Amino acid sequence: MYKQLIRPVLFSFDPEKVHHFTFSFLRFSQKMPFVKSILKSKFDVTHPALEREVFGLKFKNPVGLAAGFDKDAKLYKELSNLGFGFIEIGTLTPKAQPGNPKKRLFRLKADQAIINRMGFNNGGVVEAVERLKKNTDVLIGGNIGKNKVTPNEEAVEDYKICFDALFDYVDYFVVNVSSPNTPNLRALQDKEPLTLLLRTLMEKNSQKPSQKPILLKIAPDLTDEQLLDIIDIVSETKIDGVIATNTTIGRDDLQSEANLVKETGGLSGKPLTKRSTEVIRFLAEKSNKAFPIIGVGGIHSAKDALDKLDAGADLVQLYTGFIYEGPQLIKDINKAIIARS
C-alpha cells in the first residue's frame, strides 16, 4: 500500500516539507489508541530469534532507525510503533542551529537515493532532553556533534556538553565526526584529534556511577589505511563499537538527472549498499570481530540487511530505505531473520 499509493503522493512534493508533514501526521494519528494498536499489530514482530544483546544492551530486534530522521527526539515513541527495535536521535549539538540554507534535501528517484546537506539542523540538546524525559520504553541512541561555529580545536567541548546533557536519557552514544555537511567536521576523523575526542568522552564516562556505550560513526569514503586506523583507535580508546557507515560524498555510476547528481551533500540509499557492506566486512575481518558494528547504508530489502549481518554487523539501521520502502521493510527484515534462525 505504501509504495503503490502513499509514496507516489508524498514524492510529488518537496522532500523536506513532506518530512514535516509526515511527522505531524504520525503524531496526530497515533493520539488515537486504535491507530497505534493497528500499527503495532501490522508491523511489530516479536520472536526470540530477533532478540540481541549488544554492548550490554538488550534489543527486542536488530533493526533500528538511523540518526537524522528524528533529529530532535520529537517522534521516537510513534516511530517505535512501526516495528523498530531502537531509535537513534540527533545529530544534536549544544546550541540550536538552523542548518544550511534551503533547498538542502533532494530525491534521486532513479537511483533510489537521497542527497542531503542539512547541516546538523536541530533545536539544541537541552530541548531534546525535555522530550526524552518522557520516555519509558523505547531504546534510544544519542547521536552528538559540534555546532557549525565551533572551531575544530574546541570541538571536544561541544561533544562533552552533549554527552553530559543526554547521559541520563539515552541508552548509548554515537560520536558523529563523519557528516560531510558541517565544514571541516570530517577532519576530526584523523587519528590524533579523534583519539583525543574519544579518550575525553571515555574518561567522562568512567566518572559516572554506571557507564553508557560509546560508538563512533564513520564515513564510507575512508581508505583501507584509514579504516585500519579506526580499528587501532577503537582498541586504544576502548569505545564500545562502530556505526558503518554515514553518507558518501562520492557520485559514481548514478542514473539520475545531472542537475540532481551535482548537488553537494551526503548521498544515501541504494548507491551506498555495496560500499557500506564492504566497510563492515573489512572492519570485522581485520579486527577479528573485536567490537560490535551497527550496519547502515543502502538497506532497501531484507537481503540487503542480511548481507550486512553476514558481513559482520550485529545490528542494522534504516533511513533512506525506510523512506523508499516504508515500514513494511522493517517487518520484512525481521521475518527474514526469523525464517533462517
UniProtKB/TrEMBL annotation:
Binding of FMN, residues? A67, G68, F69, D70, K71, T91, N143, N176, K217, T245, G269, G298, Y319, T320
GO annotation (BP), single: 'de novo' pyrimidine nucleobase biosynthetic process
GO terms for MF: dihydroorotate dehydrogenase (quinone) activity
Query: What Pfam families does the record point to?
Result: DHO_dh
- Gene Ontology cellular component? cytoplasm; plasma membrane
EC code(s) of this entry: 1.3.5.2
Entry's InterPro entries?
Answer: Aldolase_TIM, DHO_dehydrogenase, Dihydroorotate_DH_1_2, Dihydroorotate_DH_2, Dihydroorotate_DH_cat, Dihydroorotate_DH_CS
Where do the Dihydroorotate dehydrogenase catalytic domain residues begin and end? 50-338
Q: Does the keyword Glycoprotein apply?
A: no
- Cofactor(s) for this protein? FMN
Where found, per UniProt? Answer: Cell membrane; Membrane
Keywords on record:
Cell membrane, Flavoprotein, FMN, Membrane, Oxidoreductase, Pyrimidine biosynthesis
Q: How is the cofactor bound?
A: Binds 1 FMN per subunit.
Q: Which residues form the active site?
A: S179 (nucleophile)
Pathway assignment reads: Pyrimidine metabolism; UMP biosynthesis via de novo pathway; orotate from (S)-dihydroorotate (quinone route): step 1/1
Top-rank taxon, per record: Bacteria
Q: Which positions are annotated as binding substrate?
A: K71, N116, R117, M118, G119, F120, N176, N181, N246, T247
Name the family the entry cites.
Belongs to the dihydroorotate dehydrogenase family. Type 2 subfamily.
Name listed for the protein in its UniProt record = Dihydroorotate dehydrogenase (quinone)
Please report the organism this UniProt entry assigns to the protein: Neptunitalea chrysea
Q: Give the encoding gene's name.
A: pyrD
